[in-house]
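Quick one: co-fold with Z5A.
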Amino acid sequence: MKGLFITLEGIEGCGKTTQLRLLSEHLEQRGAGVTVTREPGGTPLAEALRGLLLDPATGGISPLSELMMYAAARAQHVDAVIRPALDRGGVVLCDRFCDSTLAYQGGGRGICMDEIRTLNALATGGLAPDLTLLFDLPVETGLARSGRRGAPDRIEGEPADFHRRVRDAFLDIARAEPRRITIIDASAPVEDVFRSVCAVVDGLFQTRQNATLGGSAPPDRA
Ligand code: Z5A
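Sure, here it is.
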């Protein structure tokens, strides 16, 4: 069986990192080999780019430079971490991926979505997640949650309107790709959100298992 690539997406404070940790434990208990990673990040180069991208002290970065930095981090991450783990047949859980670029640099900064899709395809070599969980909640709730952590980073510090455009873009992407992306109500308590996550992921594992036992290929979710 080839590996399984699952991405978690959403606005600030949506709870994806909390759910990623719970999901990783859940899958490890089922005996899956799990690689947990994040974007931007996951390799020394990409983590260094992450530092520059999120640090308010970096100052102004033009929207196009910002886009290229996320793409550079992603190209290295896919090549060095994600593809090798999938080739080994493992499960990769990634905190943010290409949909974040469409939502933040497209929806938030206003860069042309088709140009971003072209760059994403170049950076990933065409790799797409098997499943994306989009944790959706009102912007005010998310910002209140992340605000409890202290000083905002360079992107958290953007005005609420920016974050509203990001949320709308995520929802548009999900509506356009309902087979790959499942929207999860992230305003519910952690345990309820996790129940929804497990229902979706366990369902995907079951579908894969049935397909393998039946000898047919798993359905293409991309
Ligand atoms: N970015 C981009 O612009 N373009 C790109 O292509 C990519 C990224 C890949 C990366 O930051 C930044 O880069 C991000 C987008 C941009 N913008 N910012 N800033 P990140 O992903 O590392 O950080 P983040 O998005 O801000 O995530 P986060 O703040 O770590 O939040 P989270 O992962 O969504 O949530 P959490 O850490 O699990 O929870 C946040 C708090 O809420 C915490 O105190 C929890 O205990 C609490 N929480 C979690 N779930 C719940 C529930 N259900 N109820 C109540 N409280 C909860």
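If it helps, Residues 10, 12-18, 39-40, 70, 95-96, 100-101, 104-105, 145-146, 148, 153, 155-156, 189-190, 193 surround Z5A (CB under 6 Å).
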